[in-house]
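Section 5: illustrative case.
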């Protein structure tokens, strides 16, 4: 086990502390990849040799230091590669590192649904399940030629390798990407999907207005849903084209939410983060002949001028919904 996937238990209002926590990880290894808003991957191959401890022991030290220095607990998954470390993180709990031992990759994956594998979307999972390949163990045992006929040559080969525990990913050092976030906590744990969607609409409109105010567009939108048991689900999507258009951000936010398939989930808060910000003048925009879209964009311009003159409350949330 050489890779750690760490998720810091940061309150939504303290996400600015992530760079300092990344600095804590960099005390053990320079190979740290930020996973905003609250996580990171760390390659500990050199650290294991230098400190004479394995990754699980180093994870315990990292947890203690995060608590002592920043008052922040964390959950940690460990594995031979980034994919397995990410999947182990889903089973981790505060105070306990979930580790996938070397040589135990196939046993760890065997009983998991095929949709649990990173990169397997809803359509691919549905196709595999129709042919009885509903677990990763069955996918790993299936002939490569069968998988390639079902999902294509390249996808079939990658799926076959991953299901067998072959993790070719690597940790790519980076910094925390420049981003903007909008959080919508609920007064109480919320079960109503309609209220979830209204919160997402409000957050998307706020992000769009803030992006346009600084003449930026975003390339990626990330949705974070936090639950009553303090767990969280994070999903990201790269946009078809960089945008600061509130209606486009809202559509992507709704798609991300619907893909979660929440059933009576007690949601504590939802948050949207716009990432990969670039100057608006450098972004291309595909022309459209949709009069509704053009009308909404003109309304946005008027609303932005009203906000600039009268303040952020000059426009009621939801009034720009397409």
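Designed sequence:
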């Amino acid at each position: 086990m050489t890779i750690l996937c760490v998720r810091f238990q940061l309150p939504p209002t303290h996400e600015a502390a992530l760079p300092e926590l990344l600095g804590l990880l960099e005390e053990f290894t320079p190979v740290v990849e930020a996973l905003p808003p609250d996580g990171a991957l760390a390659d500990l191959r050199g650290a294991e040799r230098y400190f004479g401890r394995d990754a699980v022991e180093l994870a315990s030290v990292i947890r203690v230091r995060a608590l002592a220095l920043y008052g922040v607990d964390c959950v940690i998954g460990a594995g031979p590669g980034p994919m397995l470390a990410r999947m182990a993180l889903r089973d981790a709990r505060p105070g306990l590192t979930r580790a996938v031992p070397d040589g135990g990759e196939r046993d760890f994956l065997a009983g998991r649904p095929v949709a649990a594998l990173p990169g397997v979307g809803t359509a691919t999972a549905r196709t595999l399940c129709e042919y009885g390949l509903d677990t990763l163990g069955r996918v790993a045992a299936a002939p490569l030629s069968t998988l390639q006929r079902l999902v294509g040559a390249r996808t079939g080969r990658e799926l076959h390798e991953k299901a067998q525990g072959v993790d070719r990913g690597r940790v790519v050092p980076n910094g925390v990407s420049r981003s903007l976030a909008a959080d919508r906590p609920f007064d109480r744990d919320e079960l109503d999907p309609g209220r979830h969607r209204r919160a997402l609409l409000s957050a998307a409109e706020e992000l769009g207005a803030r992006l346009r105010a600084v003449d930026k567009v975003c390339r990626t939108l990330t949705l974070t849903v936090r639950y009553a048991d303090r767990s969280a689900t994070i999903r990201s999507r790269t946009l078809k084209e960089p945008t600061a258009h509130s209606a486009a951000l809202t559509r992507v936010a709704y798609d991300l939410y619907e893909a979660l398939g929440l059933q009576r989930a007690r949601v504590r808060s939802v948050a949207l983060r716009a990432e990969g910000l670039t100057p608006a003048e450098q972004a291309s925009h595909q022309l459209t002949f949709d009069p509704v879209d053009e009308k909404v964009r003109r309304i946005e311009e008027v609303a932005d001028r009203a906000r600039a003159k009268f303040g952020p409350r000059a426009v009621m949330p939801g009034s720009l919904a397409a």
